[in-house]
Design a protein that fits this description.
By secondary structure, this protein is α+β, with helices and mostly antiparallel strands.
């Protein structure tokens, strides 16, 4: 873990988790964070705005209020204000991801990062989910999907440090190694 990770992200994520647990809001906070992360992912402008030290805290809070509307839990909004006040809002993405990691541990859920050449159908996602579940013994599986046309076909599944390459590209590569040896 990097220094930033341990000194900044971990304490804030843990504080948010204990706030969530004591108010029975772990899942709600998880959903709030997922939507915040997707906003940050889709807007470079928003990321730069929040990270800019010259932008006044009140302006940052106003924008956060504007983009989250009433959809976000009031306690989550207070937490975001705290991050702004402490000059830590630029770490929101890292803190959010750390929180989601803790939430998965709490729910005995594993994260499977699935990369495929084309989007997976519901049935295919279900199959991947079952496969990962039987592999890891987890209670639940959360799937994060990415598209990579270079895979040609099939999927690459990453769970923690374990990678299952069931893509056509991977099969061709293994075949190439076999032919070469």
């Amino acid at each position: 873990m990097s220094k930033i990770n341990t000194q900044v992200l971990q304490p804030y994520a843990s504080a948010l988790m204990s706030l969530a647990k004591s108010n029975n809001l772990s899942e709600q906070f998880g959903n709030d964070i997922r939507s915040l992360l997707s906003m940050l992912e889709s807007s470079e402008e928003l990321r730069q705005f929040l990270a800019n030290p010259l932008v006044k805290p009140d302006a940052k809070k106003a924008v956060i209020q504007q983009i989250t509307g009433e959809e976000i839990n009031p306690l989550m909004r207070s937490f975001l204000s705290l991050l702004v006040d402490k000059g830590r809002i630029l770490f929101l993405e890292g803190i959010g991801k750390q929180y989601l990691t803790q939430l998965r541990e709490l729910n005995q859920t594993v994260l499977a990062e699935v990369t495929s050449a084309v989007p997976l159908s519901e049935a295919q996602q279900q199959t991947v989910s079952e496969k990962v579940q039987s592999m890891t013994g987890a209670r639940q599986v959360e799937i994060e999907t990415k598209i990579d046309a270079d895979l040609i076909g099939g999927v690459v599944i990453k769970v923690g440090s374990q990678v299952i390459d069931a893509s056509l590209r991977g099969q061709l590569r293994r075949l190439g190694i076999r032919l070469a040896s």
